[in-house]
Fold:
Amino acid sequence: MQKNLIAFTKTFVQHYAFIMKTLKKSHESDTMSNRIVHISVQLFSNEELARQVTEECQLLDIMVTVLLYMMESCLIKSELQDEENSLHVVVNCGEALLKNNTYWPLVSDFINILSHQSVAKKFLEDHGLLVTWMNFVSFFQGMNLNKRELNEHVEFESQTYYAAFAAELEACAQPMWGLLSHCKVRETQEYTRNVVRYCLEALQDWFDAINFVDEPAPNQVTFHLPLHRYFAMFLSKAVKCQELDLDTILPDQEMLMKLMIHPLQIQASLSEIHSNMWVRNGLQIKGQAMTYVQSHFCNSMIDPDIYLLQVCASRLDPDYFISSVFERFKVVDLLTMASQHQNTVLDSEHERSMLEGALTFLVLLLSLRLHLGMTDDEILRAEMVAQLCMNDRTHSSLLDLIPENPNPKSGIIPGSLSFESVLSAVADFKAPVFEPGGSMQQGMYTPKAEVWDKEFDPVMVILRTVYRRDVQSAMDRYTAFLKQSGKFPGNPWPPYKKRTPLHPSYRGLIKLLHCKTLHIVLFTLLYKILMDHQNLSEHVLCMVLYLIELGLENSPEQESDEEESVGGQERCHDSWFPGSNLISNMRHFINYVRVRVPETAPEVKREPPASTSSDGLASSQSSRRKSLQRENSGTAQVFSLVAERRKKFQEIINRNTSEANQVVRPKTSMKWSAPGATPQLTTAILEVKESILSLLIKLHHKLSGKQNSYYPPWLDDVDVLIHPEIPRYSHGDGMTAVERILLKAAVQSRLNKRIIEEICRKVTPPVPPKKISSAEKKTLDKEERRQKARERQQKLLAEFASRQKSFMETAMDVESPDADVAMEVATSEQHVSEAIYDCVICGQSGPSTEDRPTGLVVLLQASSVLGQCRNSTEPKRLPTTEEEQIYPWDTCAALHDVRLTTLQRYFKDSSCLQAVSIGWEGGVYVQTCGHTLHIDCHKSYMESLRNDQVLQGFSVDKGEFTCPLCRQFANSVLPCYPGNNMERSVWQSHSNKCMQDLVQEVEDLQEQLGTFPVSISSETNLSKEMESVMKDIKSTTQKKYTDYSKTPGSPDNDFLFMYSVARTNLELELVHRGGNLCSGGASTAGKRSCLNQLFHVLAMHMRLYSIDSAYNPWRKLTQPLQDKNSELVSEELPEVPVLYRDVSSLLLIQILTMPQPLHREHFTCIIKVLFTLLYTQALAALSVKCSTEDRMAWKESGSLKKNTSSGEKSWEVLLSHVISELSKGKIYDEGETEELAVVNVDSVECYLQQFCLPFLRITSLLQHHLFGGDLPSCQEDEEFTILASCLGLLPSFQSAHQFTSASCLDWPVPAFDMISQWCSELASFADRHPDQVKALLIQEPKWDLPRLLQLPENYNTIFQYYHRKTCSVCTKVPKDPAVCLVCGTFVCLKGLCCKQQSYCECVLHSQNCGAGTGIFLLINASVIIIIRGHRFCLWGSVYLDAHGEEDRDLRRGKPLYICKERYKVLEQQWVSHTFDHINKRWGPHYNGL
Structure:
């Protein structure tokens, strides 16, 4: 076997080049490359095999050659630097080879074999291979060159930079990390030397090829310098792991000077890009700047670049380096003491941000320690803190944002132990919070308090931010932390953080902080800030102070501080500072400075005094090109420190004498000078008389706005000097920073301490010297004016806010009329007052009238939530095995359906349709946001929406809109009935009329059915609107949910549908209250109930159907019939027996067919009558339930008491009567039904109360909506009594222990007669159909609240079962399986196999299962989608990983666990029908789901 494998591998290797050629030509390179890699990864991952093939078949040579060959096909001439004469070639990033990553199989194989120590060793020892490889890498050096557009915007933004970054990362950086992983110990020093040697050779060749001397070409930048980065990373490794002496592998000074130019150019260009100097190049240039620092690229790009610059800075002359930095950032001209200057290379609007950029870069350069001594764990911790400070992060985004150390053997692999332990050390986990209606949050990590206190590092944050706003975000969070913890109330400055000590090899870096050039810059900037020169900012000052503090923290090696020789002073009379040590330079006073200024400047003075420093920047630090201009302008050239240094370096560089005088090089200067003549400059002498220390103290005064605000703290407390690390200085603003620096300066030198005290003793003059009086005055006036304007603005805003608040209060309280009227009744004496409505469109208030009706904004939706109630308290589980299937037999909808069909078999259709309610499935639920509008205003609003092209997720043609005030989704307007339409009489439980009179009145009122109030019979606007809303209500649900009659289109259907709408809304409100009324209070949403208006619309339409008085159920309930036999004669089916009728339905029929407004006493009368029927039904059901012996016993015991006075109010008597009456038929003959366990007095009473409660609840809600008044709250066990007395059924409230439900009965005619009559109907039915009698008796309804299916704890359980499950239609495994969370049906999302008449299966199922609402779990994505009518939205996931995060599309493959809170929120939105309001991102699905 092994032999065959080796043979195969050898053959594969021999054909390798051919395979790759084919790949290059192939059109479908993706599929092909995947297949190749499938083979090669298995061959090359085996170290033994790889080693053998490397040795015997020259695998490495073949690979490198093939790579070279591949890239050679797409080379172009480099335009970097010297376009005409350049000999360098680079890859063309626009070529398909790079754009489509065609090279990746090759590179991935190469990286794969380099991971084996033995193979890598061979590679690193083979000089020829290294040369070839560096040659390959140099193809990428300088690719994708950007040229700054100066005139117009580019026509075509090229997107080649993606290809360029990917190529450098994959083809250069990844192999580099692979090689680096084998250079970890001393023994591997040789390898590093080899790589560095050939790398430098390649770099030298590159410099020669592009014809580079010392000045980079202007307005060009490339982000791709892989050779520089190879060099840098191997240097870093050499020092960190191999103990190599850095100086033995570094090149000479000249090479270092060249090496630093291009990385520095990138840093300056980043700053230019962020200063918007490259806007004409389009967005892609910003994209490059962001990618360069982005987490996947930073450690192969910006980190090596900055490290390389740190190495160069530590070895080159510091003055040269510093001046180069300011020159690259084009701000040399700005660094003059003069108040005016001319910048030849930069527009003044960019000066400030470029200066900030230069200083920030210096701070980064001097304070980053990523490669200069930090351990891997410290780096990881610093990275993590920086990311967490910008924003709270999820675990997965942290993993993504922390630059992983790309070599896998480093031990810092995200997700490794060190990652988790560091995370728990620096961050706290915030578990996801859920508010219904809030956004779905994920589990987040947030920095611990001590991290903000001690470890927040703005420098690291700046280095790692892709978007500049993240720096601000980190500062805002830091500010909030300081406020919250009481450490600092104001706006803090970025804190100064102590650094890891430098590795000895890089000590030279400190020289930068102690060089005259930097001190001149710092001095100049402090002076300019103090004098309020233009283009400076707080950020500049912050960075200046940071650099001074860095200098004080890192003192140079030689301490010649205190005994500074006097001789030194004279030696350098002309160069500002005596030495290079910051500590002593800080106290050095500078008296006069010679500056070059435009002739118009205010500083132009006559004679220079004797000791004058020349301005180190406008002249001394300026580069050769300016000296040229100066000579042209004919003024004497001032001696310049840096110009001298430059000369020396030039001499090193240009050994041939012809070019020795490079200081004046016309070629470069021509390129740089601005068009037009150079400005006339003249020399002026400026009196300064300041030192850095004195400037700092004056700045403190300036920042505090007070004279003499600085007082040296050590004068009160000498300890400060001994323990300078005081917490009070660690957080604060600019003043704190100045105090901290002065303290450090004093601690480090006695002289400084003395000088600070002296300066403070002199009473300081007013801060800005009044030289520039007029301008100064202007700025002061400006400030005052600004301040006043600000105050005015504040006042206006406050006024605005209070107005807005009062508006919101009124707007949000557009009461629904009930509440409105309730308030008005309290104030006015008469019982009836007109409801006043505010229109949210035109803003007018007024009553709703016949001609101009007002309406409530409502959303009508079909709902099957009620139909999902089950009569078991145990919720159903989602099936996860073949055995667990769900059958919808026990749902509320199914049982109601069966009952109606059975009734229709045996009884007359029209009476069946009044014996039940429908709407358990596909019922119409009406909800409102409580805002009202004129119906004519609404119509014009809809017109404007129709003409508005930009529509958000709703369809105006279907009548959908959003409430103009609160933007809640709606689709109709419910007219408000004029007048108050409610009788708000005092809560009278008893009317003085007797029961018989009331019964008669109710009957008479019903007889008037045919005659309407005038307004309705004549066509008014109101009645038209009522009709149109009724049409809307009907069209909300599907036809199959409204047609139950055997004769289609019969009026009985409409009648049934209309009172069922009322029933659905009452039942749903009950569900929203938790299934009972124990909590009491007003309607769930108080103002948001629209039931009152809904009843009016329904009542108006129901009164159009007259009920034949012979069939009027009211008669059957209140009068004993004389003629019993007529019914048997008729041929047609009998009427439904009264005992089979649903009492709640009868109630709604009675109420809605009465003329409105209804009187309270009639309402109570109807309830009393219906309660007698309900009670009899309960007794009948009970009698069927108990065993034969019990039945006989009850019959006996009851008949004994029959003649007592309270016989009609004792359930025993009544039960005995029912039993004896029903025994006349064949009702008890059938087999036994399930029996009640113990039949004692208490259990019977309990059974009867439970039987009657649902009716009492619905009735109480109805009463509350019709007549107002709050519902009483109560304990569960007393719900029956409280509701009964609230409805006026209980004559006087008795004490609970002797209370029986029968005491609520109030018979209009003798009880025994009524019961006999009702029972006889059953008896006659039993004679014909004995088998159905019991089944149709109404049983005790015990419905649990609607619930979604219970989901398993672990997502894997669902995934394993469903993702392989086949579709029942086409028996294939669907591509996107989904499962319905309401009923557990398995469906194919977007599956064409299951499409029926252009409806895909999910949409179809949502109509069948939820009347248009579907909740589906997408198996392969773990997310839930909601379908609502013609729209859908992604809801989110209820499964989260251990860190509280979603894993959409299962990309991360983490184990997921159910989040119960989220699932509860989902269920609650389903039950409360609020999907439309809470979820915002809806889109049309075009039936394609």
Summary: The radius of gyration is 45 Å. Residues 1066 and 1261 are 7 Å apart (CA to CA). The longest helix spans residues 773-812.
